[in-house]
Design brief:
Layout: H1 6-35, H2 41-49, H3 56-63, H4 67-79, E1 83-87, E2 95-99, H5 101-113, H6 124-142
Antiparallel strand pairs: 1-2
């Protein structure tokens, strides 16, 4: 159990500000990169998460969003001929999303755009440590307290 004093509060506040600033910088860099190929971050994320045929609901889970929000993204990608909806093989009510050949090509472009690390100034080892620490913090934040 953490005892709350002004020093602890100040440390937590500073940590929150640093994580937020890193997130803002990374989002700005990512927006700039994906805009070069005519996409938004949400569209680029959908292309990266579509690793095989899946339903809109499955994609929404991977994108951490509501299916209604994923529909907007998929509609735009479909209009750009990067994604297509096909009948689901076992569920007549559902559609499966798949990348078109153009979508697969765009996915390769995304990989190229992401070759430069978003967290610059850190060694690969430091990036691994940061990733591990952030994953632990996210897991701990999502774990219900007894």
């Amino acid at each position: 159990m953490t005892t709350w004093d002004s020093q602890t509060a100040a440390r937590w506040w500073e940590l929150g500000k640093l994580v937020h600033e890193l997130d803002m910088q990374n989002n700005a860099r990512l927006r700039e990169r994906v805009a070069k190929i005519g996409l938004t971050i949400a569209q680029a994320s959908a292309l990266r998460e579509l690793t095989g045929p899946m339903t809109l609901s499955e994609l929404a889970v991977r994108l951490s969003c509501e299916p209604s929000n994923a529909v907007v993204v998929i509609d735009k990608l479909e209009s750009q001929r990067l994604v297509e909806r096909r009948p689901h093989p076992t569920d007549r009510r559902a559609k499966q999303l798949s990348l078109t050949p153009e979508g697969v090509e765009r996915e390769g472009m995304l990989r190229f755009l992401c070759e430069e690390p978003l967290v610059t100034g850190l060694t690969e080892w430091e990036q691994d440590v940061l990733r591990d620490l952030l994953q632990r913090a996210i897991f701990a934040a999502g774990t219900p307290k007894a």
